[in-house]
Amino acid sequence: MKEPSYMIVIPKNEKDLDDPKVFMENLAKNEHIKIKDLHVDDERGMVVDFEIDGAGYEVALDPVDVDIPEFVRPEHAFTDEEFKMLDEATVGLSVSMDFDGDSNRCFYDQLRFIDALFPETIAVLDCPSEKLLSGKWVSLAARSKVLPAPRYLFTVQAISDGGEEVWLHTHGLKRCGLYELEILCSNKETFNDHYKMIESFAVRMLESDEPIEPGDGVFIGQAAGKVLTLTAVDWREALKFYPDAMIGTEADRDDEVHGEGTYVLMIYKNDKDEKEKRYTPVQDFNQFLDQNPMYMFSSEETKRMSDLAIERIPFMIKAFENKENTILLKIGLVVDEKHWDGGKPQREHIWFELKDVKDDKVVAQLTQEPYYVSGIKEGDIGTYPFSDITDWLVFTKEKRISPDEAYLLER
């Protein structure tokens, strides 16, 4: 079931591919990478055994024709000039690597390897997730000390039959040694929430120290006081609950695509159902979707987002110099002691508008009423250290830019 992580690098200058010595010299210059072995395989091309910060990998490199399928979607914004360069690109370099261990770390290290080969690329086609990644984003992510978001390892596709029915399914999880996920018989009103359910479940699979097996219950959110516990069910079994399905049926599958290693998300309504492995369609939760459902972020992901926001504060400060931009900051404030958990301080993460930057602190105005922090109210202005920032957003005239998209602020 496991598949290699197969990416195609599209460099800015195709001539860089003419002589492998050029990009191999780039690789040798990288202080984090140590080449252990290099040989040529008749089927796989050039094979490189290397270590990056002590982790060992084997990567196969091979020139390939560039042909971006129509179903591949750009994950990032590209300029008109970059789209023109992509249209004119004819040759790229495939970089194929098996993930072993922490998939998030493996994905990050594959990007670092690519960035070392080609410091300037137009784009990287991540074939398992069917995403086209911006070369500028790849470079920024590879040189960061913070791993990319787990959602980059997979894509959730929404397929419509031309009517109301929507079939949601993932691509990319098999390279992580995991099963792919689906939701059957969604529709145009509910598929956004169903998308979030799949994404939340997939991230939990990627973060979990122990495998989440089919049938295991996973709490991923709540709405109207009702908890949402999902489980994975073999698609053949799940189809029995959807006799009227028009897409995602057996006719839409084969062993290669959406066949083996594919599971449909179902729900456990309560603890008793979970204990007895009695699941029902996710549509049983639809009645609560209009009551502001909350999907849970793990503490690991919350910290990763905060670390990235802090690391990329210089981009935010640069954007603040343009007074036409509006910048919002999410700041973690310690809640009142009566709301602490087991005597441990908790934080409420609240949005502020940036008003000034002073050394390693921000002056910001509260944009909403806090729930668990007394003594402050909407409109109050305070001074907070960078270390309390957990997220930020830059609003330009054209777009909204998050820390993950900071490469857009370099243009």
Rough outline? globular
* Rg computed from alpha carbons, rounded to a whole number of angstroms: 23 Å
Strand order of the largest sheet: 2-3-4-6-1-7-8-5
The main pleated sheet reads as: 8 strands, mixed
Helix content estimate = 10-25%
Instruction: Report mean pLDDT, rounded to a whole number.
Output: 93
What is the tally of helical segments? 9
Structural class: alpha+beta
Count all strands and give the number: 22
Strand proportion, as a percent range, falls in: 25-35%
Determine the N-to-C terminus distance.
41 Å
Question: What count of domains describes the coordinates?
Answer: 3
Name the poorly predicted regions: none
Q: Would you mind describing this structure in some detail?
A:
- There is one protein chain.
- By secondary structure, this protein is of the alpha+beta class.
- It has three domains: 5-149, no CATH class; 154-295, no CATH class; 299-410, no CATH class.
- Helices cover 22% and strands 35% of the residues.
- It contains nine helices and 22 strands.
- The chain has helices spanning 20-29, 80-88, 103-117, 135-142, 191-207, 235-238, 271-275, 299-311, 313-320; strands spanning 5-11, 33-41, 45-52, 55-65, 73-74, 91-97, 121-126, 131-134, 155-160, 165-171, 180-187, 218-223, 226-234, 262-268, 280-281, 294-295, 326-334, 347-358, 361-366, 381-385, 389-395, 400-401.
- The strands form three sheets. An eight-stranded mixed beta sheet has the order 2-3-4-6-1-7-8-5, with helices on both faces.
- The protein is globular and about 65 Å long.
- The two termini are 41 Å apart.
